[in-house]
Design brief:
Largest sheet: none
Shape: elongated
Structural class: mainly alpha
Radius of gyration: 18 Å
Order of helices and strands: HHHHHHHHH
Number of helices: 9
Distance between the termini: 63 Å
Helix content: over 70%
Low-confidence stretches: none
Number of strands: 0
């Protein structure tokens, strides 16, 4: 049975998996090739070096975990409905916690830092926009967005390291999301 030809995205996804599992320093051509059942030649067909792979992996992360999520949320209705879709989506990605943590831990790397900063700023600004549309003033929307993003990062760490502390079934996750939104949207 013939093996399908790997794409640059396959290599990028594998690199993101290694970052999630073992950190940025563990991203290396030979172990990735072994993980994918490929040769180093396949890697070099797509990338001139490790740095190019890391750049491609970061673009893929930004596209799938920020651009695609915002596009999904924007298909919704009212600002409150959009916030519900956003929180349901991001809080439901428990497996992403390891990756988010791995990327945050590598934020001092010259290639990773600017991307992590840009993504975090974009995510925060998007939540600020939704909260402003929901009727909060600029300062209040910014403070609440920061609270929401901090909670998301904390949830990501719990999902990665102590998942048993988080809601496990669908009904419990939905109740948790409702409570988060209630706190975030409270005018008290």
């Amino acid at each position: 049975m013939a093996q399908r030809r790997l794409t640059a995205d396959d290599w990028s996804r594998a690199a993101l998996g290694v970052i999630a599992d073992s950190g940025l320093a563990a991203v290396a051509v030979e172990p990735l090739a072994a993980r994918l059942g490929a040769t180093k030649g396949s890697f070099y067909w797509h990338f001139p070096n490790r740095d190019a792979l890391i750049d491609a992996a970061l673009r893929l992360w930004e596209q799938t975990r920020t651009d695609a999520v915002i596009a999904l949320v924007e298909a919704g209705g009212s600002p409150t409905e959009k916030l519900r879709v956003l929180f349901t989506t991001v809080l439901g990605h428990a497996a992403a916690g390891r990756l988010e943590g791995g990327l945050m831990a590598a934020a001092d790397h010259p290639s990773v830092g600017p991307v992590v900063h840009r993504v975090a700023a974009r995510r925060l600004q998007y939540v600020v926009q939704l909260l402003a549309e929901a009727g909060f003033g600029a300062d209040e929307a910014r403070h609440r967005a920061l609270l929401a993003y901090s909670a998301y990062l904390g949830q990501s760490q719990l999902a990665a390291r102590l998942p048993e502390l988080l809601p496990t079934d669908e009904r419990e996750r939905e109740a948790y999301t409702t409570q988060v939104l209630s706190v975030l949207l409270s005018h008290e």
